[in-house]
């Protein structure tokens, strides 16, 4: 399992995906979050849990793409699923692995 080296490497990956997906990010934070892996706002703000730095990079990339797609598609419908497939291939395997990771309640 390959983890992120640090917050700088993770944020670089977020910016790279945002560039590939033609999405403008207003702000990008990695901070403590107890209930979610990430969140985004319609204003272009992205927040990621600092816990993401301690999980497998592939799972982190799933979370990155998942959140960035919400700037284009607000739900998890067919379009969102087809875009996830386009960017990550068989994203359902990553989604399943991520669901096995416990989150604080």
Itemize the secondary structure elements and their pairings.
Blueprint lengths: L6 H14 L6 E5 L6 E3 L4 E5 L7 H13 L8 H11 L2 H9 L6
Parallel strand pairs: 1-3
Antiparallel strand pairs: 2-3
Helix pairs in contact: 1-2, 2-3
Features:
105 residues, alpha+beta, Zincin-like, three-stranded mixed beta sheet, globular
Strand neighbour order, sheet with most strands: 1-3-2
Helical fraction equals: 40-55%
Largest β-sheet summary? 3 strands, mixed
Look at the structure and give the CATH class: Alpha Beta
CATH topology name: Zincin-like
Oligomer: single chain
Q: What is the typical, i.e. mean, pLDDT?
A: 92
Question: Unreliable runs, pLDDT <50, ≥5 residues?
Answer: none
- The class by helix and strand makeup works out as alpha+beta
Report the radius of gyration as a whole number of Å.
13 Å
Number of strands: 3
- What is the second-level CATH architecture? 2-Layer Sandwich
Helix and strand run: HEEEHHH
Number of helices: 4
Give the distance, in angstroms, between the N- and C-terminal Cα atoms. Answer: 25 Å
How many domains?
Answer: 1
CATH superfamily: Metalloproteases ("zincins"), catalytic domain
Strand content: 5-15%
Give the overall silhouette. globular
